[in-house]
Amino acid sequence: MLITPEISTLSYKKQLAKRFDRASLSYDAYADFQKIVLERLVAMLPVEDAEVVLDLGSGTGQALVALSEQLTPACMIALDLSPQMLAVASKRFPELKNVHFVCADAEQLPIQDVSCDLVFSSLAIQWCLNPLGLFKELYRVTKPGGYVVFSTLSKGSMPEISQAWRGLDDAEHVHQYMSPEALMDCIKESGLNLFSFLLSDIPMWFVTPEDAIYSLKKVGASLIASEGEKPISPSKWKAFLNEYEKQRVELGIPLSYQVSFVVVQRPFSIQE
Asked: For site-directed labelling of 202, which of 58, 153, 155, 158 has its Cα 20 to 30 A away?
């Protein structure tokens, strides 16, 4: 995803919701990378029970069963910007009676102060425009002593795509994700305390460059262009794929991610 200064907040959020709406029916079939990250993040849960759990950026609900089984919450909120993603999730898990599906913006949570024992979010917060504002929101809704457990893409993700485009033009085609250092600064400034952190390089391999790009497009993570930008011509797209093909190795076409796995805690008191 490409976020540029020219794109307004409202326009960006509308485009983002539409992207994930369109990907709602194909998401689960193409979400191999997302499933790997989710499994690792679930393994980092710092508690064995939580009364109220918020799954932020719930998507098609891939985390809901694991959160329900491991934390046995009395109430679970599945929140996402995409109504179609939530529709898929609600149909997928009718047996989860304690889940409330909420279509809302993560940066403006319709949730009362100090109401969540644990906030869980896998590969969602990188789509937010104001990271510090987001973490302040998460601080607000989390109970003292409660946790925020999340994964997010970090700086250096998808270098293969950037490298392929550099053979064609000087434009920026891949969103510049936050560095771990900037992420830690936002967490600290929000008032949350770092509990654990892991930065992991996760490579994925594909048969063709087209397959690598589809792995992004089919989960809603394709580029969002700035307003007024012309679509890429077929000839330029073919040239990009040819450049990407040059990176083929024995395992196939690479597409790698830098993923931050983070657990933070709201202090029990201001003094902590």
From this structure: 58
Burial of 124 by CB count in 10 Å (0-12 exposed, 13-18 middle, 19+ buried)?
A: buried
Can you read off the two tokens belonging to residue 255? 């597409």
pLDDT tens, residue by residue, 207-233:
999 999 999 989 887 654 443 456 778
Put simply, whether the predicted model's pTM sits higher than 0.85 gets the answer yes
**Contacting residues for 153 by C-beta, under 8 A, at least 6 apart:** 123, 126, 177, 257, 258, 259, 260
Do 206 and 175 meet the contact criterion of CB atoms below 8 Å apart? no
The answer for residues whose C-beta is within 8 angstroms of residue 107's C-beta and 6 or more apart is 128, 129, 130, 133, 134, 137
Buried b (16+ CB within 10 A) or exposed e, 154-167: bebbbebbeebbee
The CA distances from residue 121 to 44, 93, 242, in Å, are: 12, 18, 36
> Do 141 and 115 touch, CB atoms closer than 8 A?
yes
Q: What confidence tens digit (pLDDT) does each residue in 104-125 have?
A: 999 999 999 999 999 999 999 9
Between CA 2 and CA 8 the distance in angstroms is 13
Q: Which strands sit side by side in the sheet containing 193-206, from one edge to the other?
A: 99-103, 75-80, 52-56, 116-122, 142-153, 253-265, 193-206
Enumerate residues 6+ apart whose C-beta is below 8 A from 60.
24, 27, 28, 85, 88, 89, 92
Tokens describing residue 77: 């909120």
Q: Angle 241-242-243 (CA atoms, 0-180°, nearest 5)?
A: 90
What are the structure tokens assigned to 41, written together?
């993040």
* Amino acid letter for position 157: S
